[in-house]
């Protein structure tokens, strides 16, 4: 059930993401209770999607969903504004980019936040698309992929398709905003239940086709928004959207790259080396895809992994007790299913990425704390650039 509470806005904080027609607004609110006035209760962080509930001002009465903050979720440390009672749901966006004239398709349909959009799926299907697609399992991989792609393929246009699996509002991503400011993303489409990008797609297939065929992107990155959901089970996590996205890319006859989730710093053994999230997707894929590794890593699993990591990252590898080191040498139950993919190596430049000023944190760990995670994303961006060349050579 929704856990809704009345509150008063006591502070508005600009993030650079908000505008009169969209984005996200950061707020501080005070909850109202039955026993005490709203203005004397505890301050709480909150966010408001401007495209859905409008711009809030100090003193506004709002209804907030408090469930994530009350549960202490790591990726949901704030309340979410459900409706602004003071300003209501006006028509300020009736002609805006996310709710244009003649909008006829609902997103978040049959919920109290359903809203009409005009989908991008208007053009005829043109196959093969052929241009390459990098598939992500975590939003934290996006910045490294985009930066390395730009270094390897200057002048090429890279677009981002945001899928389900994490945060659904397009305006919630600080990474997308930073990449747009640096000129590293040519566009941002939100697909499926995700919303609030430059334009809306009903399906991931429609978004990729539109971006690559109509908007002229040279390549695309496809993956969830921030705040992945998960249950510590093989299939119950938002990263499984990578399986769907990869199959869509393959069906459109795109060169498909899976960006491996790897870690040298995660305390959870299932994510060390190459994460079980990536291994599960590689096992279940119906067709082989390309997978990138940092140069020098001879194998993503088995006894070669520790030697490869030491060769690539050297002293940057965090020290761990000897008893913990075997966690990086993962055993794969069905190795043939993993080995069938096209494994490629690419050089990575962690110091240069660190100097870029782009987001460099995953699960609270920075570059020094988890160099392999970021090295894998940089390798993914470099190999994605290689796939553009491969695709052009295969074109008639």
The tally of strands reads 17
Strand order of the largest sheet: 11-10-9-12-8-13-16-17
Alpha plus pi helix count: 11
Integer average pLDDT: 82
- Rg over alpha carbons: 22 Å
Strand-pairing-aware structural class: alpha/beta
- Strand proportion, as a percent range, falls in 15-25%
Series of secondary-structure elements, N-terminal to C-terminal: EEEHEHEEEEHEHEEHEHEEEHEHHEHH
* Helix percent band: 25-40%
Sequence stretches where pLDDT stays below 50 over 5 or more residues:
35-40, 91-99, 314-330
Euclidean distance between termini CA atoms: 55 Å
Shape summary: globular
Biggest sheet, in brief?
8 strands, parallel
Number of domains: 2
Structure description:
This protein is of the alpha/beta class and 396 residues long. The chain folds into 2 domains: 4-84, OB fold (Dihydrolipoamide Acetyltransferase, E2P) (Beta Barrel), CATH 2.40.50; 130-394. The chain is 26% helix and 22% strand. The protein has 11 helices and 17 strands. The chain has helices at residues 50-53, 67-71, 142-152, 174-181, 204-214, 241-251, 276-284, 304-313, 335-339, 350-354, 371-394, and strands at 4-13, 24-31, 43-49, 61-65, 79-84, 105-107, 115-117, 130-135, 158-163, 187-191, 199-201, 219-224, 254-258, 262-263, 273-274, 290-294, 342-346. The strands form 4 sheets. Strands 11-10-9-12-8-13-16-17 form an 8-stranded parallel β-sheet, with helices on both faces. A hairpin with a 7-residue loop joins strand 6 (105-107) and strand 7. Helix 3 (142-152) crosses helix 11. Mean pLDDT is 82; it is low at 35-40, 91-99 and 314-330.
């Amino acid at each position: 059930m929704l856990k809704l509470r009345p509150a008063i806005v006591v502070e508005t904080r600009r993030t650079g993401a908000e505008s009169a027609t969209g984005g996200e607004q950061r707020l501080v609110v005070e909850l109202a209770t039955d026993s005490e006035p709203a203005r004397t209760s505890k301050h709480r962080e909150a966010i408001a999607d401007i495209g859905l509930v409008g711009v809030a001002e100090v003193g506004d009465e709002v209804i907030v969903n408090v469930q994530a903050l009350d549960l202490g979720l790591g990726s949901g440390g704030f309340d979410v504004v459900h409706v602004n009672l003071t300003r209501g749901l006006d028509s300020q966006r009736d002609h805006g980019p996310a709710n244009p004239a003649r909008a006829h398709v609902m997103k978040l349909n049959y919920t109290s936040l359903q809203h009409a959009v005009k989908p991008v799926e208007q053009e005829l299907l043109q196959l093969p698309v052929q241009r390459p697609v990098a598939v992500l399992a975590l939003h934290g991989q996006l910045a490294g992929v985009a930066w390395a792609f730009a270094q390897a393929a200057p002048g090429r246009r890279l677009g981002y398709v945001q899928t389900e699996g994490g945060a659904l509002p397009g305006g919630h991503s600080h990474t997308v905003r930073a990449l747009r400011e640096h000129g590293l993303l040519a566009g941002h489409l939100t697909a499926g239940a995700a919303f609030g990008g430059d334009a809306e797609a009903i399906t991931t297939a429609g978004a990729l086709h539109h971006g690559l065929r109509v908007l002229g992107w040279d390549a695309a990155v496809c993956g969830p928004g921030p705040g992945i959901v998960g249950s510590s089970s093989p299939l119950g996590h938002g990263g499984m959207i990578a399986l769907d996205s990869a199959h869509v890319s393959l069906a459109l006859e795109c060169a498909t790259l899976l960006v491996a989730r790897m870690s040298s710093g995660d305390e959870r053994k299932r994510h060390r080396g190459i994460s079980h999230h990536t291994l599960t997707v590689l096992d279940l894929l119906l067709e082989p895809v390309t997978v990138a590794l940092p140069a020098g890593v001879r194998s993503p699993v088995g006894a070669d992994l520790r030697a490869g990591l030491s060769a690539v990252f050297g002293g940057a590898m965090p020290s761990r007790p000897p008893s913990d080191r075997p966690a990086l040498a993962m055993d794969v139950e069905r190795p043939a299913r993993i080995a069938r993919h096209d494994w490629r190596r690419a050089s990575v430049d962690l110091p240069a990425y660190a100097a870029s000023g782009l987001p460099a944190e995953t699960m609270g760990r920075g570059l020094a704390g988890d160099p392999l995670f970021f090295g894998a994303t940089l390798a993914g961006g470099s190999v994605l650039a290689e796939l553009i060349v491969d695709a052009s050579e295969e074109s008639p």
